[in-house]
Automatic annotation (TrEMBL):
Disordered: region residues: 52-72
UniProt name for this protein: DUF7730 domain-containing protein
Coiled coil: none
Origin superkingdom: Eukaryota
Domain DUF7730: 17-129
Amino acid sequence: MTKPASMVPKKTADLAQQGSSIFPFEKLPAELKNKIYFNLLQCDTQITVRRRTVPKGDPASTRRGKKKSETAPVAFNWQKNRRTRTFSFGSHGASILRTSSTIYKDTLPVLYGANRFASEGLLSMVDFIASIGPGKKHLRDIAPATLNYLTLATATNSFANLERLERLCLYVVADYWRSAESSFQERQKGLVTYVKAGHAPEQRRRLFDTIHFVVRNYHRMDVYTALTGKEPEVTVEELPAWLKRRLEKCLIERKILKPLEDGL
């Protein structure tokens, strides 16, 4: 039985009238929707994901009640209490994914496939990849901070499982006071582990091709030359390409990677 108009609450009637005037976004052509998604979600700069550790509530952090303004200091045991890790994207329009299941499926490849994601640490990137669920299969460009190379071997196992990854950007500090070979040795174990994760020769070649070295900061060459009286064996501009060639040579010697047909 339909209620008379006089019996319908005014608020409900207003909502119904408002709903009838909503723009039918999902009925737009796919090409137009994709343009809108890219304009909203694609960023000109990389998206830096920051991990925040939120401790589980502890009785010592609750108000004692002796004085209204007095709160007990937080006594937190990191070994016994669970930690919840959350990630902050910043303002990148990611909330549109919560609009509907259809929009979620349409925008997931755009958000994670059209942007570079950077992190402040290797393990932060590993945790981020694990937290985004189905979004990780769309990741194409990641730039984890690689100052701690002791964790690189562990982290690269996670990166090797990204099927669509095209660029693994690893930052390098160019230090003229140390040899380029020592710089390579620091990264060797993790990078070999990463490429070795490919089961077939073509998979290992693809993983090798994703590696890109980028000089993040460096010591001044003129200071080194003035104090030592000699030129460095590898300059800042040459270091990324030198590391890539040195890695390829190492992988070929270990029979992890096959040489290219042209012998390069």
